[in-house]
Amino acid sequence: MPLPKIPSQPATILLAKDYPKASGTHAIAPLAVPAEPAAAPKKAAPAKAKAVQAKAPASTKAGKSSAVAAVLKAAPAVLKAAAAAEPAAQPAKAPARAKVAPAARSKVTPISTKTPHPAKHKPVEVPLKSSASRHADQTGATKLFVLDTNVLMHDPTSLFRFEEHDVYLPMMTLEELDNHKKGMTEVARNARQVSRTLDALMSNTDDDAIDQGIPLSKLGNKDAKGRLYFQTRIQTADLPLGLPVGKADNQILSVVRSLEAEQDGRHVVLVSKDINMRIKARALGLPAEDYFNDHVLEDTDLLYSGIVQLPDDFWSKHGKDLESWQENKNGQSATFYRVTGPFIPSLLVNQFVFLEPKNGEAPFYGQVKQINGKTAVLQTLRDYSHNKNSVWGVTARNREQNFALNLLMNPECDFVTLLGQAGTGKTLLALAAGLAQVLETKLYNEIIVTRVTVPVGEDIGFLPGTEEEKMSPWMGAFDDNLEVLNKSDSDGGEWGRAATQDLIRSRIKIKSLNFMRGRTFVNKFLIIDEAQNLTPKQVKTLVTRAGPGTKILCLGNIAQIDTPYLTEGSSGLTYVVDRFKGWSHSGHVTLARGERSRLADHASDVL
C-alpha cells in the first residue's frame, strides 16, 4: 500500500524558533563550572557573589556577567580544558545553539536565560516567598508556618507539605473549619477531611505533648519531618487602631505578631490563599506568602507542549545506523525509522517531532513510538490536511491540528489532552473524531460530553427539566460545532441534514459532573470540556471512570480559569498533562493557531 502523501508545504503557523530544539541546559554549563574555583583567589568578597547567586540563580545581571568576564580573562587554561572535555555533548544541540556557543565563549555578555521554548518565559522569581522565608532558606533554619483556614480547605493534605518545617494552627482557624464543615460542596468535604486528620494526629497524645508539638510523621507521612502546634492560650498583640478586633483575619494576624515576639530568632511566616490577607500582613510588617505547594509547575510556560522541532542536522547526526520499514496498523500503512543519536534522550514517547527544511526539501512529521536509551523509533503520520483523509468532513488546517487528529483517531491512544486558546479547534476536532468513530467505524458506542458548571458571570439560578435539559445551556459550544459539522453534508438536502442531526443527537449524551462518582463507562468516547476549571481531585475522579475500550479527551485553555483558588499551575488540566506525559497510551498537543475567524484571532492577540 502506498504511503500517505506528505505535505509539500510547511504549515503557516508558529515560527520555527517558537519550538524547543534542545534541552536548553548545555549552553551555559561550560562557563558555570570553572567560575567557582577560579573566582576565589581573584575576588575579595566571594560571600557577596554567593548571595547574589542564591537570590537569583537564573538571572543574568551585570554583576554576574562582570564576574564571569574576570574569570574568563584570568583562567583561559581552565576554559580551554572545559571546552575540550565537552565535544561529546555538542551534537545534542540544535543548529541555532551551535552558532551562539562560540560567541558565548569569546564574549561573556551573551550569557542569558534565553532558551528555545515556544512561549516567552516569565522570569523565575523567588519573591513568591517572603523575606523571612528566603533568609531562613539561606541560613538553613527551620520555619514556623501559621496556616490560614483557606489553605486547609483548599488542600486537606497541606499539613504534610512543609517538609522539615513546623506548622502552627491558631484557634480561629479551627473555629472557621467548624463553620464550613456542613454541606456537600468541595470546601465542606475538605474541611471534614482536615478535622479527621487532626483527630488522628491528636489521638493517644497527652495534654503536655500538645504544647511540645505533635510529630507530623505520626500517620506515616515520612516527608513531613516537622511538628504540629496548636494555640493553647490567648495570645494578644497590639494591632493598629481601626482594625476590627473580632474579625477572624485580624485575630490570626494578632497571633502571628505574638509568635514573632515570643519566638525570638525563629522565622514565623503566615501562609494564606487570601490575597487581601497577605496584603494586610505585609502592610503590618508581618511575613506572609501564598501556598504554592499544590502547583504542578511554578512557571506554566514550561508546560509540556507535546511537540518538538528537530534540529536541521538531525538526519546527518542520527542517520548513521538508520533502519526503516513499513507496517500496517489500524488499516493504514506507516513508515517507521529507528534512529540513534544524542538528541534522543530529550524526547518522550508519543511526542510529535517535525523538521521543515528551509532549502525546499519535503518536511518530515513524525511521532516517537519507542525510546531505549539513545535509540528511538519514529513513525510517520497520516496527513489529515488532505481531503481524502478528512474526518467527518473536517480537515486539519495547520500542523498542530494534524498532530491532534492523529491522536484522536488512534485507537491505541486511550487518553488525549488538547490545550489551546479560543478558536483553535479543540471541540470541533474532538466532536468530528468522535462522530467518525461512533457512527462510521463503530469503534465506540456513544459520545459522552461533560463539563464543570462554573459560570463566567452571575449564576442564573436553578434550571428546569431533566439532567440533560439542565446541562443543555452549558453545552452551547457543542451545539455550535454540531451545526458546523452538519453543514458539511450537502448531498442529502435539508431533510437529509435533519435526519442526520437526529441520528447524531441520539448518539451524544450530555452528563453532569456531579453524578460521575461510582460510574463505569465501557466503549465510550468521553469528552471533558473546560477541564481547566477542574481540580486535580475532580480530574482523577473522571479519568478513573474509564472502563474497557473507553477513550477520554480533556479539552481546555488554562488562561481561562473561572474556579476560585485555582491557578494555571494548580489546575487539574495542568496536573494530568504533566502526569501523563511519556505514557505509551496517552498523548498531548498544544494547539497554537486560531482558526475560528480573523476577528477572533485578532481579538485574542490584542484584548
UniProtKB/TrEMBL annotation:
SUPFAM superfamilies: P-loop containing nucleoside triphosphate hydrolases, PIN domain-like. Pfam families: PhoH, PIN_4. The keyword ATP-binding applies. Gene3D superfamilies: 5'-nuclease, P-loop containing nucleotide triphosphate hydrolases. Residues 143-279 form the PIN domain. Residues 85-135 are annotated as: Disordered. CDD domains: PIN_VapC_PhoHL-ATPase. Residues 85-108 have a biased composition (Low complexity). Keywords: ATP-binding, Nucleotide-binding. Belongs to the PhoH family. This is PhoH family protein. It comes from Duganella qianjiadongensis.
